[in-house]
Amino acid sequence: AQGKKAIIGVSIPSATHGFMGGLNWHAQETIKRLKATYPNLDFVLATAGAVGKQVNDIEDMMATRNIDALVVLPFESEPLTSPVKAVKEAGKWVTVVDRGLSQAGIEDLYVAGDNTAFGRVAGEYFKANLKSGQKIVVLRGIPTTLDNERVDAFKKAIEGSGIEILDMQHGNWNRDKAFSVMQDYLSKHKQIDAVWAADDDMAVGVLEAISQAGRQKEMWVVGGAGMKEIVKRIMDKDPQLPVDVTYPPALISTALEITALRFVSDTPVYGRFIIGSTLITPENAARFYFPNSPF
Amino acid sequence: MSVVAPVLELAGVRKSFGPIEILHGIDFALHAGEVHALIGENGAGKSTIMKILGGFIAPSAGEVRLDGRPAPYHSGAEAEAAGVVVIHQEFNLAPDLTVAENIYLGREIGRVFLDHRAMRAGTQALLDELDSPIRPEARIRDLPVSDRQMVEIAKALSRKARVLIMDEPSAVLTSREVEVLFRQIERLRAQGVALLYTSHRLEEVTRLADRVTVLRDGAVVRRALRGELTEDGMATAMVGRDLEDIYPRKRHHPGEAVLEVRNFCVPPLVADVSFALRRGEVLGISGLVGSGRTELAEGLVGLRPATGEIRRNGVPVAIGSVREAAARGMAYLTEDRKERGLLLDKNLRENLTLSTLARFGAPFLSAAREEAALGKAIADFDIRAPRRDMKVGNLSGGNQQKLLLAKTLLGDPEIVIIDEPTRGIDVGTKSQIYAFIDALAAEGKSVIVISSDMPEILGLSDRVLVMRHGRLAGELAGERISETAVVRLVMGTAEDAAGNAHHV
Amino acid sequence: MSDATLRPATGLHLPGLSALGPLLALILLVVLGAFLNDNFLSAGNVTNVLARSAFIGMIAVGMTFVITSGGLDLSVGSMAAFIAGVMILAMNALLPGMGVGVPLVLAGMAIALAVGLLAGLGNGLLVTKARIEPFIVTLGTMGIFRSLVTWLADGGTISLDFGVRQFYRPVYYSGLFGVAWPILVFAAVAIAGQIAMRHTRFGRYCEAIGSNDKVALYSAVNVDRIRLLTYVLLGLLVGLATIMYVPRLGSASGSTGMLWELEAIAAVIIGGTALKGGYGRVWGTVVGVLILSLIDNILNLADLVSPYLNGAIQGVIIVLAVVLQRGKSAA
Amino acid sequence: MSDATLRPATGLHLPGLSALGPLLALILLVVLGAFLNDNFLSAGNVTNVLARSAFIGMIAVGMTFVITSGGLDLSVGSMAAFIAGVMILAMNALLPGMGVGVPLVLAGMAIALAVGLLAGLGNGLLVTKARIEPFIVTLGTMGIFRSLVTWLADGGTISLDFGVRQFYRPVYYSGLFGVAWPILVFAAVAIAGQIAMRHTRFGRYCEAIGSNDKVALYSAVNVDRIRLLTYVLLGLLVGLATIMYVPRLGSASGSTGMLWELEAIAAVIIGGTALKGGYGRVWGTVVGVLILSLIDNILNLADLVSPYLNGAIQGVIIVLAVVLQRGKSAA
Ligand SMILES: Nc1ncnc2c1ncn2[C@@H]1O[C@H](COP(=O)(O)OP(=O)(O)OP(=O)(O)O)[C@@H](O)[C@H]1O
Ligand SMILES: Nc1ncnc2c1ncn2[C@@H]1O[C@H](COP(=O)(O)OP(=O)(O)OP(=O)(O)O)[C@@H](O)[C@H]1O
Ligand SMILES: [Mg+2]
Ligand SMILES: [Mg+2]
Predict the structure, then answer these.
(1) Does A95 touch chain C (CB under 8 A)?
(2) Which of A176, B251, C171, D321 is most exposed, with minimal Cβ within 10 Å?
(3) Domain span at residue B466?
């Protein structure tokens, strides 16, 4: 396939919250870089704010842009399965990122974070650092399957530890919403020892609400994803933010790069690449710090 | 006549809105083949009676009887199905629909699909019968008030009524259209329809009515048969006192020109109008409906794009909006009080002061000053409102008109253009308004009166302009102002117009 | 001469021309698309654009009646999600008993229509009987439907059984004489809607009520019933749209149909129907829907400076399309 | 009758009672909240709820004027995000030159107000000069602002420099006599709004235009200017809201202010202002805003069956609040 012109379609959700913003940024940066490196590659990027729009985008790429490969981060797994399958059936290369399709074996390449690990790693940290009977609150994301997976894994990980989950409300991966939910948690619960904010955007809102209530000393917060400001604070040994759990938006870059390899070399690139979630601690934080990323 | 059993009657009907009783025990009957006229001052309760008869509102006490039995209807629509049809004082037309669509609203022709052609043809036939050039597919919104009234009439006529109730149908019509209406009324009377008619033009009552009932403050004060009451007698019965000649007798002594208009055009109709208005003068403008008088006036006060020259006190001015006109001391009273004159959902105070709000305090409005102005307006114009804080839409038609006059004059304009000043106003108040206009002129203000009411034009004006097809057809002054002369100019034909004169 | 001059400005007038406004915008968009990409006018792309317009399209046709009669419905997007959720759950539940086949699909369709009808009825009754502003009623039911479907899905996605899915798929993807089903159904709905608006009492009464409900009431129009009917009709059309939507994606979740209400209302207004009611133009709505989906399509055809600016360009085109229309009518 | 005629306006009639509708709903919610949770009436919680309401509240007060005069503005949420983005970028850019301090904050505030004014002016001019339906104009600008802020943020978040942030924070978190600044500013805006609506020409003209713009035009009201002013005022208030919002979290992104427009419009309508215009009630709007944020607060404080159903309960309460109001006014 070397040297031949190839068009790679990229379909991702639009930048509606921090993590997706980071992912959008990484996607664009990587595309720029790959285009410069491999002049025979062309990319078509479409971002969608809703499932239906994403399906439309994929249809349009097929009908009008003559793509040779599709890199897709499904907005939701179920509804994207058959449209992506149609792309595969048309003989195109398919790379699925992050959220698996609901049917196995469609994609040529799968690059993903690990939502179960994301919840589990956080849960294990809570289990290790809290005593039985201590109380925590949880902020969930937008109601979705992946949010369910994370929360289930978290709950499973702290099982048997005697840690009490006081409350679990949806903060929609949104700073403002997380801020008000946390304010209300603080009014409602006299004792909170730790917060699982499950997302760094939400963690920002949560921290702000805690400091407003003047209860910084009482509890610590674990977010998720690896936003640069949060990583920085971990590096600086902020007692309120002991650790973070990675779920790197840069996984889109991995997906794009491997897909590009398929068209510029003979390297076999089929398979599954799972980028595990690891714990960012003050010791290793520097490795996860990208000051130029918007996220 | 009186041996015939009544078709529709009221027995001991009372009506209250909130704590205030408007009708105090009305007994009243309509007979087949008769025109019954209901007259009374503004706010006496005429329209309320008509709405009760037509099933639109329920009496608080008493009974409506149809053919001697309690009326079987509880809504206007049901009443219509029972053959009782009302032409409302306020328009009852959907502004976004066409003439044909309105006329057939609620009883369209066609089974599954509408038969547009049949409805259009039916509408055309009705309009032809009324001698009206309105197009069936014109939207109501685009029609002048007089045309809307003709559509109302056409709509009512198409209903095949046993009882036809007409609430001031002639108020917005010109004499020619009134003639057409009368022909229809006479035809229906001959067919045995029971008719109820209201008008503040007593000569119409004299001409049409077989029976007259006079209402004062919600009670019947006089019943009479044809010929028993003169116009003066009616007026006296209505108002409760004798009325002098309602027009002011003395003529004014006009000063210098305060407004000169040259080659004035208001597209598409009005073209090349030139005239001058002098200080202390009442200038009447006459013409047929659609002759462009309203367009001319609206052009003058900046409501329509216009070309030509306007000089105010000899200085050329450009007037692009009502505000600019107001700044130059000019005010215009619209003929369309419901759509352009008053905010029907707002109370009296807010309506009265709307165009002169800047005078009532800045930055904060002074409610006390507004109330004081309202008090004065109520007294000056004899506005009869059960309560001051009511919606203007619930005022009687004549009282709305009085409020609109008060509103227009509140800003003390030097030049007032009044389009149909006394539309729907009772005789008693009319004379007050004429006296008011007279006083304005005497004070050195200038007044332009646009009117379709010939006696009004003749009785008020120092000078008369006549418009035809958007152009000035002529000017009459002093002794030359006569009905014959005006009509001749209005019609545009010298000789046969004279023959028509006594009909107008 | 006399008659003609007596009647000002009512003769050969503008509506005919102004009505062409949105159509002109549509044509310009098509030209732009064809200019940007050779495949734009290919059968495949045209089918895609038309078929995907179908959901919003059917809903927007229903919305035209609601808005024309002076109402509004913000709940349609969530209603679609809710109907899809219930329909899928019901089909999955019926599957063991009925097996994959036409009866199951028909049962699912019947359920979708029934739920749509009931949802519309609910909105309509709250508006006409409880006399609450349509804005508030449907804002409330918007939250309710959305939240119910999230709850039914337990926060995740409700998926149609895979076998049923395969069987049901052709309802979106295949068609008759080479025209996809959603396009055919949308066309049928649009034509029926246009006829209903112009040539039946129902449409006439919608306009009359939106223009002045008191006049309509005085003219023996059953105002409440017609209003109720518009919401019920809209509910049914949302059900119908869902019937075409489910085979496309085979699932429903809390984010299904997000912002459809805004898109449907926008299509109606772009098409020339007055937001305050009184005047409805079904074919204008169809043009409006096509304009909106063409904008998306064209944005995908061109390579923009930044995908972040899609929304801005979309906004500019929407406003321009309407300027064009107003410009024409002012001319 | 003549007696009645001379009697000046008195207060003791129905409007007074019906106006209490939303207030009643608010009181019921407060009682419910106090019953569900002891901390509900604590100073901390009350401050939280009021301060959170402040942004939407100020915007809703502006929206009341827009809606009263027969307009609509769907763009306010994105406008807030856009203003916040520009303000933060400008402050960061000015920082090296000006250093952390009052001048920098004042410069940021001035920029926020200026951008708000220009944004409102843009909407207003498109509505009044280009004569496009407000719905379409602001739907368009909604997309434009939202997309511009995402673009400015490069898809991510625009954050205020940490030092500036620390300095600016008290504008949200601290206050005067124990009352937080946002609450004070909101109260000031509400009172000024109420006075403007009831006791100035501007408010009177807004109602007149919304009631019948033709009558207003014939009554020497500068209809276009007043309409334009309502949008400009709203833009300024969005700017003011942003000034209070930025110190809270110190950031702006594409998701800032999402759905604020819907919440603001809902607050206005719940408060008793007519969506069709002609009648505005600023204090009702304030009550509406408080109702909406209390619902959220109570849902967070109470332990519900499932958080998925929050939206449904919210919807039901909104509708009930309005039923209560209508019920009262019918009484
Ligand atoms: N809905 C209402 N609410 C309160 N008052 C009302 C209402 N409708 C009518 N009125 C009052 O009832 C009285 C009678 O009004 P009506 O319209 O019957 O008078 P009218 O005799 O027709 O007068 P006009 O000659 O001016 O038309 C008026 O004082 C009017 O203000
Ligand atoms: N096409 C139209 N659209 C809107 N309004 C119209 C139109 N044509 C006429 N009008 C309105 O109709 C009213 C009367 O116009 P018309 O041509 O009948 O003038 P007129 O000579 O004053 O007649 P009238 O005797 O009724 O006063 C004016 O207020 C005018 O604004
Ligand atoms: Mg009357
Ligand atoms: Mg006229």
Answers:
(1) no
(2) B251
(3) 244-329+414-504
